[in-house]
Write a structure and sequence with these properties.
oxidoreductase, 6-stranded antiparallel sheet, Phytyl_CoA_dOase-like, Phytanoyl-CoA dioxygenase family protein, Jelly Rolls, alpha+beta, dioxygenase activity, dioxygenase, 8 helices
């Protein structure tokens, strides 16, 4: 197994310099793609480590053709930081947590959970959805870092965004699936929100808030589209009373022991910045 070098550790801790235009862009659109956040060496290293971990943890044996739309979208594995001390160094990266905190405009960032999303060759679309439908969190001070582990052309199904769609209330009650794709595709077509579909370079990372609607196309290549995600929240985020069964599940799975109306401080939700 390859060893993490001092260069990679420095890369995970180094500050990221924002421009005023980047900060303005995020506040208006609630998503941003930032180039050269991590070095190519860092991405290659974690591609290898995370791939091995996903292979160990993956229990999905069903053929793609036999899965539903959600199952065809990607292999999904959670909280790899608890299974692998090396992956924990990426998830706990000061650089990434500080970026999240700056964009959320908070005093610091707390971990909600991490998530590996591997879209197999021939994998289907990821339907339009807003992540925060699932989260029993009191405010919208949330953000997800979407970290491709390789160069990701359009053919592999990179993340797409409806810019500034956090303003839309319709669709917030929908879980990810065929219905959310159909309803939001129609709804977003009649808005002025720009649909952003762009490839990702190596080291490029996107950040999006919990209520921004996003999707991904199918992976029409023979290669696996490998992505690691880290979900952050305001370090002072309070648990809200869940509003659907998915939020109840998230409460007990990702914030065990947290109490509605109080700051989430479970052992699974450490402060990262």
């Amino acid at each position: 197994m390859a060893l993490m070098t001092d260069l990679i550790r420095l890369d995970l801790a180094a500050p990221f310099a924002f421009t005023a235009d980047q900060l303005k862009f995020y506040q208006h659109n609630r998503f941003i793609k930032l180039k050269e956040v991590l070095l190519p060496e860092t991405i290659l290293f974690f591609n290898q480590v995370i791939t091995r971990q996903v292979e160990e943890m993956n229990g999905v044996k069903t053929a793609i053709s036999e899965r539903d739309t959600y199952g065809k979208a990607f292999l999904q594995l959670f909280n790899l930081w608890r299974e692998n001390a090396v992956i924990k160094e990426l998830v706990f990266s000061k650089k990434l947590a500080n970026i999240a905190s700056v964009l959320m405009q908070t005093e610091g960032a707390r971990l909600y959970h991490d998530q590996a999303l591997f879209k197999e060759g021939g994998g289907g679309i990821t339907p339009w959805h807003a992540d925060q439908y699932y989260w029993p969190l009191e405010t919208d001070k949330t953000i997800t870092a979407w970290i491709p582990l390789q160069k990701t052309p359009l053919e592999m199904g990179p993340l797409e965004f409806s810019a500034a769609s956090h303003q839309i209330v319709e669709g917030r009650e929908l879980a990810i699936g065929d219905e959310s794709e159909l309803v939001m595709q129609k709804r977003l077509k009649v808005t002025d929100f720009r649909h952003v579909i762009e490839p990702f370079d190596v080291g490029e990372i996107s950040f999006h808030s919990g209520w921004v609607f996003h999707r991904a196309g199918a992976n029409i290549t023979a290669e696996v589209r490998k992505v690691m995600t880290i979900i952050y929240m305001d370090k002072n985020m309070k648990l809200k009373t869940p509003q659907n069964e998915n939020q109840v599940n998230d409460w007990h799975t990702w914030c065990p022991g947290a109490i509605p109306g109080e700051i989430i401080r479970s052992p699974l939700n450490p402060e990262l910045s």
